[in-house]
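Researcher: Next sequence.
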Amino acid sequence: MSPQKTLAAYLKAPFQIELREVVLPDPGPDEVLLRVKACGICGTDLHAARSQATEWQPFGHEVAGIVAKVGAHVTTVKEGDTVALESASFCGHCDLCRDGRVDLCNKAPNFWSGSTMGFAEYMLAPKEALVPFEGLPFEHACLAEPLGVALDMTYTAQIALGDDVLIVGLGPIGLMSIPLARMQGAARIYAVNRSEGIRLEKARALGADHVFAAEKEPISEQSYRRGGVQRALVTAPPSTLPEVMKVMSYGGVISFIGIEYGPGAQITFDANEFHFRKLQLRASFASPALYFPTALRLLRDGHVDASAIVSHVLPLERIMEGLELLRDHRDMMVKVVITP
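Model: Next structure:
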């Protein structure tokens, strides 16, 4: 084996991109060299581009590709296999894992410290991150990572048969939560986005019963057939939560994955009302990245329509255009996938 040259995208805030030629070493004994075939742009990439990437860094974590070389100790995949990459994995050996709480362990090796990540032609990945798949185009298989996030959010909410569910924020994760909520027993699904546009249309197509734009119809002013909802799935900023609490039924559960930095991360609400209405606010944080086999099957079998989520496919050289679409034109796009 010999070192591999690769073109890779590097990011620095605010919204600076460099394409660099990088030389990757041969994979270590517990690594593979992956030929990246598709990588989705995530909302966290946008946060990094806006303010979090204070130094130049590689990025891209919604990855699908082909195994190009394998290390000496890798036995689970071989050269030529198609795989999706878990963005974080559990170790299987610590006390948490042995107690059955693999969801609380992030101790397995990952690819975040590599010199390239998913927005590159090639990258190195640890064997623990590799999830084989067949029967999916790469630009759909890379949705396994955000679909795993949606699965974690819906599982955290513990949707019961017959529940009415409110989904707040109709990015890829919120949209993919619509069919998941239905499969888990939701009787009626309300889907709300901040503004009008293609995401409301996608929500209807994916099975939401009632869709609306919060800028025109506030969440708390909607008419809910049972006076409120039993479950809410919130993929919007923290500032949304107090209003969502207003429409929860007695004993309602909110599953939350929104992220904000700075003052916007702080919220206030009436703790007495929260207490006496028996509400629950649960954080969904899909790290380690679980449920990839389930996610890949749901995508392959069409239970989650990947073609409704992937709105743009661009080459690596146009990655800045992809970030700008996500930043400036959210009303006309859903998911941008880069194909190096």
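Model: The chain has two domains: 4-143+304-339, 150-283. The mean pLDDT is 97.
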